[in-house]
Write a structure and sequence with these properties.
Blueprint (H helix, E strand, L loop, with lengths): L1 E3 L2 E3 L3 E3 L9 H10 L4 E4 L5 E4 L4 H21 L2 E4 L5 E2 L5 E2 L3 E5 H4 L17 E5 L6 H13 L4 E6 L4 E6 L5 E4 L3 E3 L8 E3 L1 H7 L8
Parallel strand pairs: 10-11
Antiparallel strand pairs: 1-2, 3-5, 4-5, 6-9, 7-8, 9-10, 11-12, 12-13, 14-15
Length: 211
């Protein structure tokens, strides 16, 4: 466990379920519905990943981010935005819930009619993870790599603790931007430019005063 700016960084709780308990995608969806107060994902091995609730600042920043993407997506018209409560079953079997995701409509249109009633069985074209004060940066980086390996075309890991943005793309090493004022989503998110000022302001991380 590490301390950054007075906040505790910790690895998510990993719960092994096999061989004693095995759940298919439907069972896991029902399990998550029965435990709505928990933030739960599942890795490719079937282990459950229990994460701590986010801070108020992180929740506010995430709402700002989602709103920006929805406004752009409505104008663009080529894809749909999903918020942090949605789950995606990746090709490797893991079930992940990005803080923001975007999927092209032509990929959604070919799914079965009831495909959106449970977790969506595909990897989004774009994913965004917003690091909260309790999130492990190592775990988030591993998750971003997993998204790209499973078909995501672009991924942003926004780290307000360090005021950095990690950019992940296919066939390229991650790029790190330090204190950027804005970032462009081209060519995956055509014409989308994200202003980071509201994100930094929403979280307003400050060192804790020592007693």
């Amino acid at each position: 466990m590490a301390t950054v700016l007075g906040h505790f960084e910790q690895e998510p709780l990993l719960v092994h379920t096999t061989p004693g308990l095995e759940m298919d995608d439907h069972d896991f969806f029902r399990f998550c519905q029965a435990n709505r107060d928990l933030r739960i994902e599942r890795n490719a091995k079937g282990d459950l990943i229990i994460m701590a609730p986010v801070s108020g600042g992180s929740s506010r920043a995430n709402a700002e981010l989602t709103a920006d993407f929805i406004i752009w997506a409505r104008r663009d018209g080529t894809g749909s935005v999903f918020d942090s409560s949605g789950g995606f079953v990746l090709p490797n079997g893991a079930t992940r819930s990005p803080d923001v995701a975007w999927v092209r409509n032509d990929r959604l249109d070919v799914l079965e009619m009831d495909a959106l009633e449970e977790f969506v069985r595909l990897c989004p074209d774009f994913v965004l993870e917003l690091r909260s004060p309790s999130d492990s940066l190592r775990a988030l980086k591993a998750k971003m790599t997993e998204y790209i390996q499973n078909g995501a075309r672009l991924g942003w890991l926004i780290d307000p603790l360090e005021k950095r943005v990690h950019i992940y793309q296919r066939d390229a090493e991650p790029q790190i931007l330090t204190e950027p004022s804005k970032i462009s989503g081209n060519p995956v998110l055509k014409g989308f430019v994200l202003s980071l000022s509201r994100v930094w302001t929403a979280i307003r991380l400050k060192p804790k005063r020592r007693k």
